[in-house]
Design a protein that fits this description.
Elements (H helix, E strand, L loop, with lengths): L9 H13 L14 H6 L10 E5 L8 H7 L6 E6 L2 E4 L3 E4 L9 E6 L38
Antiparallel strand pairs: 1-5, 2-3, 2-5, 3-4
Length: 150
């Protein structure tokens, strides 16, 4: 069994943050980083255990089309393997039928290579720049200094 990380890697977190920045209204129901107890029991050697995996919800209506991402991310040097709609891709083996218990029809599984866990560079550069929605502007007001109570 792979040891279970307490926190997902910055690269895995960046996938979800960047997808949301590009498509703020996207569905997130199947997003995932670290494994649940049930997931650990079913897949003790999952890359989710190490924090080097991320599940991204398929939501083509709102711009996150995992059919496209499954193909485009094959060119990303950070990707170890991808799983989506009953298929698994790795650089070594190409696309094969995925025979795991979950066919990953509702989300794309992205496993990140060791050594790239801190790489937060753009995951979806072909999708353009992030959208700014409801930008918040606020002023910082300094609090008065505390009086000495001695």
């Amino acid at each position: 069994m792979k040891p279970v990380a307490k926190k997902a890697t910055p690269a895995a977190i960046a996938v979800l943050r960047q997808a949301t920045a590009l498509s703020p209204n996207r569905a997130k129901a199947s997003d995932g980083l670290l494994p649940s107890a049930a997931h650990i029991k079913a897949s003790p050697n999952s890359d989710h255990n190490t924090g080097l995996a991320v599940d991204l919800t398929h939501d083509p209506k709102h711009g996150i089309n995992c059919v496209e991402l499954f193909i485009k991310l094959q060119d990303d040097k950070r990707v170890s393997y991808l799983i989506f709609q009953g298929r698994i891709w790795s650089q070594a083996k190409g696309v094969l039928k995925y025979t795991g218990s979950n066919p990953h029809n509702k989300h794309l599984h992205i496993s990140i290579k060791e050594g790239y866990g801190n790489d937060e560079s753009a995951w979806f550069p072909w999708l353009g720049k992030a959208k700014v929605v409801g930008k918040i502007v606020s002023k910082v007001k300094r609090l008065p200094k505390k009086k000495d109570t001695k």
